[in-house]
Amino acid sequence: MRTAPNKIEWTVSEINLLKKNWNKLTNKELFQLLNKPISEHSMRTKLYEMGLYKLELEFWTEEQVKFLKENYKKIGDTEIAEIFNKKYLKKKGWTKKHIEKKRRYLKLKRTPEELSAIREDWRRKGLYKESNRKMWITRGTNEIGTVVIWKGDKFIKTEKGYIHLRVFNYRMYKGEIPKGMMVNHIDRNKLNCNPENLQLLTRAENARRNSWSRYPEDYRKALWSIKKLNRLINKKQKQWQETN
């Protein structure tokens, strides 16, 4: 016959320690501070018995699942989250991610036609504009003249939008860029957009500069020799085809 495990006895000082620190420390830190010959799981069980929850889960109701199943094909996830925030109150609120996660779990997938119809409905209601307005409120907008770095290049914000800083500086200090020409960095440093470090190259020159400059001098000479040899072979083959 199996016997029940020994019941863990807790002192008043241990209980007070848990009450005082459960929401300040992680479970691991609290367990180390407790320094009691029990498992961490036993400590967590005691916390639950005392009603000291760090995370209180809120589960979907049948009504919420039913609403999602009936409307996911015609209403977007963001809009469903807004409806839920008004209709089904939750401590932390509803977000688009909550809806997406539940849809994936229930395998509720929209067809391209349904997605297109939802987007068109959003455009008709002006919800895309509202989304941008909310983004500007939460994230703010950069002022004209702000320089940002994106994917290794510098950009500056102008009245017409963002453009490459190298292009902006060349036009500002050296003049307009002729058609077919590109602004290039003399020292090959994309972040150095000082006017004296900028030059104009044709597209062919720019491509040649970027493709060959990565290799050592002797390697470039070998590649150039191979290229010349290939041209000669192609020429001879063409002559042979014409004579035969």
TrEMBL record:
<dbReference type="InterPro" id="IPR003615">
    <property type="entry name" value="HNH_nuc"/>
</dbReference>
<keyword id="KW-0540">Nuclease</keyword>
<keyword id="KW-0378">Hydrolase</keyword>
<dbReference type="Pfam" id="PF13392">
    <property type="entry name" value="HNH_3"/>
</dbReference>
<dbReference type="InterPro" id="IPR044925">
    <property type="entry name" value="His-Me_finger_sf"/>
</dbReference>
<protein>
    <submittedName>
        <fullName>HNH endonuclease</fullName>
    </submittedName>
</protein>
<dbReference type="GO" id="GO:0004519">
    <property type="term" value="F:endonuclease activity"/>
</dbReference>
<keyword id="KW-0255">Endonuclease</keyword>
<feature type="domain" description="HNH nuclease">
    <location>
        <begin position="170"/>
        <end position="208"/>
    </location>
</feature>
